[in-house]
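Could you join me in thinking about how sequence relates to backbone shape in a protein? We need material for that, and I hope you will provide a protein of your own picking. Once you have written the record down, we can walk along the chain together:

…
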Amino acid sequence: MEKYFMIRSIRVIVVIFIQIAFVSVCYSQQERSNLDDVLKLVFEIKYEQALPLLEEIINKDESNIKARTWLAETYRRLGRTDDAIKSARIALSLDPCNSFAHIVLAQASYPNADSISVHVNKAIECDSTDPNAWLMMWGEAIKNADLEMRNKSLRKLVETGFFTKAALAYGRLELAFLPPNSIYITNGDMDTYPAQAVQVTENFRTDVAVIEKEHFGIPWACRFIRDYQKVSLPFTDQQIEAMNDSMDANGNIITKADKVFKALIVQKQNNQAHRPVTIAPTVNESFVSPYINNFKYKGMFYLWQPQPDDGTVDTLMLKKYLSSINTDSFTGPWASLKDRSPVRRFYTNGVVRILFQIALTYSEELIKANRIDESEKTLEWLESFEKKTEAGEICKDEIKRLRSLMKQHD
């Protein structure tokens, strides 16, 4: 009888342990599911909605490191720097080698250069496969005038899968038909890094200086542009450091980047600089507006020329771009799932509009030339191309407008 009760007790204990384990697993799965749902809000740039849900997850489980680091990042993106730092430090107390937490601290430490450097290096030391850490190291390398580390960072961004097939294809196309030895000014982020990565990893169009416009307003970046990208800038180190934003007579802010860009254009006007100056179509028109009349649209770039643009379209260049596009290269996502930036994840696929616009502009020029059949074929190609891309069919209204124009030429 005693043996019977012992066996029965063991069975009861086993059943209880199984039930506890089952509940624990279910709870863990529920927590992961809840966090995944919250992160969807983060990547939709709905930080205010995501924040209380992240805080709720932490209140239930203070040891949830992933939720803790995303809470820190969400605080940072909402401008709550002190809360971001506090949350990231708690995450590091739980996991001292958490690369994500170190990157949050690096970004939240701005403008403390020493703190940024410490945490970026620690993030890479902890996880050399984290591309977000290498992206920050790219900036650190430029700041430190370390060309070798800058190029290593770009190689690591390719190796770790930070750049998708579509992003790299776009980078190649940006460079492909630029005039030799061009200065190519970009908006920043994903019209910049992939092109530079292609230069480094594929030795493609290394004659081009790819520069994001905001770097014109950062002293250490200006020095790198001048000394390593060989762009003629008429400023001493002291002048670069002393330069500040100002306001014109109409109350418009003139940024340091505006001033450096103006100096570059003035050199061109005075025939004191010989490298072609080109602007990516992704750059906001306001940056170029004082000189817009001297920039000619070439598809993937605008080219500065000494004489005002006559308004004609370079259809030969547009056709060259369209003929070189392998539409299969632009399938799939434009931003990697490894990229922790909600902004890049949300907006990058919109860059494909630049390619769509080339097709729309070329089609309209064909209509003006009464080459209706060719125009229709271009639009059919565009419709097929759109369907393959992550952005999808976003040109329907423009295509409809052009087909209406065709009918007027019948």
In short: The CA atoms of residues 269 and 306 lie 6 Å apart. The chain has three domains: 38-127, 163-312, 315-410.
